[in-house]
Structure prediction request, 298 residues.
Amino acid sequence: MKIIWQNDLAVEPSLLSRLQAAADCAAVTEGIERPCAVCVRLCDDEAIHALNRDYRGVDRVTDVLSFPLAEYPAGVTAGHADGIIRELYDDDAEACMLGDLVICVPQLYRQAEEYGHSPAREAAYLTVHGLCHLFGYDHIDPNDQREMRTMEEKILSAVGLSRDDHSPVSDETLLALAREAMERSYSPYSHFPVGAALLCEDGRVFQGCNIENASYGLGMCAERTAVFKAVSEGEHAFTAVAIASKGTVAWPCGACRQVLNEFAPHLRVLVTWDGHVEESTLDALLPHSFGPEKLIHE
Ligand code: THU
Prediction:
C-alpha cells in the first residue's frame, strides 16, 4: 500500500516502518487486488482535537481519525467492492486512493505507555483500526463490530502482532504479500520483477523486492532484501519465505540460498508465478550446506 505521508512532527523511523508494514498487510488481508494508496498525517494533540471537533462534533483529543473517500453499501467492504475501488484511481498517486488517516502521535505514545507495549506496536494497532474504517468496516452495530474486530485480528496476525496469537499467517497471505512486494520491484534492466515475503517465528512478515542498478553487479535479489530488512530490525528466526515472479518460477538463487541458510537452514520455501504455487525446503535446495555451525570451535 502506498502511503503518502504528511508528517507534522518528526517520528522514530521504526514507527513508520511498522505503520507501513501494517498497511501492506491490511490491503492484502482484506483482499484488495488493485494497487491502493492512503494519505497518513501524523499530528499533535491540538490538530487532532480540532479535526475531531469539526468533523465529528467530539470536543476532545482522540488517537486516530479515518476519512474514507468511498462509500460502501451496507455489509460490503473494500475487498469485495472492486468496482468502487477502481473508481478511486488517482493519477498522481498511481493507485486507488482510499482516503486519509490522521494519527495523533502524543496520544499514540500515551496509549503505548498505558498498555505497556512499544510505540511501534501501538502505531500498527491504530493504523489497522483506521484502515479498517477506510475499507468500510464499522463498529456501531455489534455484528459489524465483530466483523471489524475479526479483520483487525487477521491483519495484526499477519504483521505478527495478534492480540490472541491463535491465527498464524497463512501460506495464502504470505504468497499474496510476496506478489504485492513484486509490484515494488526496481528491475529496469532485467524486466524480471521478483517479490519475497519472509515469515518470522513470531509471526512478523518482512517483504522485499529485487533492486537493480545501472552498475549491473550491484543489484540485489528480493529474498536478500527481505532477510536484511528483518535482521536489521532484530529478527533472526524465520519459518518460511514466499517468492513471487511472473512468466517463470524464481527459486532463490545460490547467493540467497546461502544467506537464508545462515539463519534458517530448515526454512520452508514457497514459490508462486502466474497462478502456480510450489513448495520446497532450504535443506533440499542447498544440500551439504556450509553454515555458521562449521565455524563454531570448542
Ligand atoms: N532475482 C531475485 O530477486 N530473486 C531470485 O530468486 C532470482 C533472481 C532477481 C535478480 C535480478 O534483479 C533479476 O531477478 C534477474 O536476475
User: Anything to note?
Assistant: The chain is about 40% helix and 20% strand. The radius of gyration is 20 Å. The beta strands are 2-7, 36-43, 64-68, 89-90, 95-104, 195-200, 205-209, 238-245, 268-273, 276-281.
